[in-house]
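quick one before i forget lol
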Amino acid sequence: MSASEQPPSLYASREPIFPKRISGNYRRLKWIIMIVTLGIYYVTPWIRWDRGAKLPDQAVLIDLANRRFFFFWIEIWPHEFYFVAGLLIMAGLGLFLFTSALGRVWCGYTCPQTVWVDLFILVERWIEGDRNNRIRLLRQKWDAHKARLRITKWAVWFAIAVATGGAWVFYFADAPTLLHDLVTFQAPLVAYTTVGLLTATTFIFGGFMREQVCIYMCPWPRIQAAMMDEDTITIAYRSWRGEPRGKHRRKHVEVAETTRTADAISQREAPKDAPSLGDCIDCNACVNVCPMGIDIRDGQQLECITCGLCIDACNEIMDKIGKPRGLIDYMALTDEEHEKSGKTPIPVLKHVLRPRTILYTVLWGGVGVGLVAALFMREDISVTVAPIRNPVYITLSDGTIRNTYDVRLRNKHGEDRPYLITVESDEPFAVDLEGSDTQTVMVPADSTMLQRVYIMAAPGSEAAAANRTDLWIHVEDTVSKEATEKDTVFNGKGTK
């Protein structure tokens, strides 16, 4: 096969994107969100919270070794994993809700990839200059100047990446202790491995892959179509107002300084047979600021993360040429037909409050209320009972029938607590605790203890002769007077 007959390549190499610096309401909002989210991520592991002598004094801690999760005054135990499941459900419903109402606002403002890319671009702009300088530097041959800028930028990126990976592992152990161990090379291998992996992914994804992560690796751009409809608010270009686009015959500065309207100037300067131009002057400002490198004037696209930077750029140009803002704006598809026909724009609240979003809100709020209710209704002590059925019962020398039970006692308090174990039933039973001369056992603070309990029925009693007798093992914290119980059965001689 000749070279001319070779099939076309399906691979296109990445074109580097250098977003231009822009100021405006949405850019300021992104700065605020970036500072808040990064602050929460880096600072949270260092917040101290007094939990007593036997627990770590860390406000937020995922204690994998003991299978517990601490969040300020809340402590989640392994058997309470439904709280974690509930939070994941709320996160999913929240993502559906915001996407249905406002499009990809999560992607544009709070997604970790977006936040760290914003930070990396800020560093890049600070070291190498704005868009034009970075483009020239890319095309420039390697020399001492280019090497110095590149190495400096990569060094700062790497420091941010290390801090990112380091902050993550602090959520899984006491932060000050782990930091000391990391610095003195005494930390577990898994800690260094985790820091290394997160450092590498942050450095590569935030510095070199950027928009490719959103386009090719993230599944959400493809899922979002099922969450959006014609009433979803997203970023759009008012083509009926901007087209046909073209360069206006005047200088932006002159128009900004004059008191005459832009329309009057255009009519005076344009030839009589010239077509009427739209508001778009085809300056490409919206394209130059886009972190995804797309042209929003081409319509809605999978790559668009609705960050609003193109709105700021376009509004700035509209101010300069004396045209109304909003040529590019947050709007719904239904707004297009209304505005084209001259009708009053649909209120934003009407777009947001519709059956789909109301259903998501009700579901989201219902799960949240359920979790809060469960959190306040849960007991600080709990018990599980496992009867030992091999053998089913034992006959003692005096004829007493004895059953054996493994009782798991859980003490969620920060100090040791004495638990009194008794039996409630219509029949009289005796209780004996292995390793204790009384019916009280001391359960260590914030832990679970397995206690073997023997329950006995006197010779000749109905319980001793019967097949099964219902009973309840009652456990009481003698300090707080909190109590709980579990039902089980006693097997007598009638058991087959």
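fyi The first helix runs from residue 25 to 43.
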